[in-house]
Amino acid sequence: GREWHLVARPQGWPTPADFALREAPVAEPGEGQVLVRNIHFSVDPYMRGRMSTAKSYVEPFELDKPMQGGAVGEVIASNAEGFEVGDHVLHFLGWRQYATVNAKSAVKVDPEAAPLSTYLGVLGMPGLTAYAGLLRVADFKEGDAVFVSGAAGAVGGQVGQIAKLKGASRVIGSAGSDEKVKVLLEEYGFDAAFNYKNGPVKDQLKEAAPDGIDVYFDNVGGDHLEAAIAALNLHGRIAVCGMISQYNATEPTPAPRNLAQIIAKRFRMEGLLVGDHYDLQPKFVEEVSAWVRSGELKYRETFVEGIENGVEAFLGLLRGENTGKMVVSLPA
Ligand code: NDP
């Protein structure tokens, strides 16, 4: 089977030359293992961090080894109790066609209950990030006005819709194209949305939120964060989920320059790591899957087909080519 290796640590924007698609033997499962044919794998922004050696909350990818990440697939050989050929599993050995997985780190998923790809998105890690980040870290309360950046992405789209479903007074989103803004307004039910490429975020946010905001869910950092601080009401909360605008930066970015407002506004700003919130998983799955079934919560997915297009899918994600979750699908 073929698998993607990181072969050089990107400086700034990654390029295709930093990666190699290599052939690897398909290992028979040892004791306690299953052999999985991957059907979908995830490309996520945090993987950019794993490509560098900067100290972070996950280990860097090793050079000349297969990259890792969320994946769902079908068990094609099993040497583990409780796992049968034909079972579907969620696991962490993506970026490859075949994975030999320790059954302990695989979770069975039901393709009848929901499409397999949704376990990587709306019902998976990004979904839990949105749910825990908004409801727990940002301490969302009914009546709050919520601003979310990266709003047409996997996490952001769900943040805005959960806020609406939980009684937000106003939900505002920003995204990088007019088509995405249209999705936010017409499909996801945001009250206001703007394309951050059409003008200064600060001005556009002021117009979209004339009465200010109580919560900012940050996926982007930089100018977005600065604009949100400016718009924040007294005792507002900022959940910092991501700062994608600086993942490929080669120099420190200046914004936000107005952090001193934290005093006068007594706002709270807290970082969020999804891994801290798996205790909410059952509640999250129950609540969100019900909204998905009833059609109250919409989600989108952008599929890129073929293992050979995996790196292009990741680069496309950084460029904003996805609406909703970016997923690489592997035809049988
Ligand atoms: P998305 O589906 O949102 O995809 C990334 C999006 O980021 C792109 O579609 C693009 O959309 C946008 N983007 C890229 N560059 C910029 C830029 N310079 N300025 C503004 N937007 C940009 O990814 P996810 O939903 O998976 O992740 C969203 C954020 O959440 C990321 O920051 C990620 O790191 C973070 N995250 C954090 C977790 C945690 O535990 N802390 C867990 C999961 C995700 P556009 O066209 O709008 O520019």
Task: Tell me what the structure shows.
Helix content is 26%, strand content 25%. Helix 4 (178-186) links the parallel strand 9 (170-175) and strand 10 (192-195). The strands form three sheets. Strands 3, 4, 5, 6, 7, 14 and 15 form a seven-stranded mixed beta sheet that branches. It has a six-stranded parallel beta sheet with strand order 10-9-8-11-12-13, with helices on both faces. Strands 1-2 form a two-stranded antiparallel ribbon. It has nine helices and 15 strands. It folds into two domains: 2-121 and 300-329, Quinone Oxidoreductase, Chain A, domain 1 (Alpha-Beta Complex); 125-275, NAD(P)-binding Rossmann-like Domain (Rossmann fold, 3-Layer(aba) Sandwich). Helix 2 crosses helix 3 (154-165) and helix 5 packs parallel to helix 6 (223-231). The chain has helices at 46-50, 125-137, 154-165, 178-186, 201-208, 223-231, 261-265, 281-294, 310-319, and strands at residues 2-6, 19-23, 33-42, 71-78, 88-91, 98-102, 107-109, 145-148, 170-175, 192-195, 213-218, 232-240, 268-271, 301-305, 325-329. The protein has 332 residues and is α/β, with parallel strands linked by helices. The model has no long low-confidence stretch (mean pLDDT 97). The chain binds NADPH dihydro-nicotinamide-adenine-dinucleotide phosphate (NDP). NADPH dihydro-nicotinamide-adenine-dinucleotide phosphate binds at residues 44-46, 126, 129, 150, 152-156, 175-177, 180, 219-220, 241-242, 244-245, 272-274, 317-318, 320, 322, 326. This is NADP-dependent oxidoreductase. Keywords: Oxidoreductase. It is an enzyme of class 1 (oxidoreductase). InterPro entries: ADH-like_C, ADH_N_2, ER, GroES-like_sf, MDR_fam, NAD(P)-bd_dom_sf. GO terms for molecular function: oxidoreductase activity.
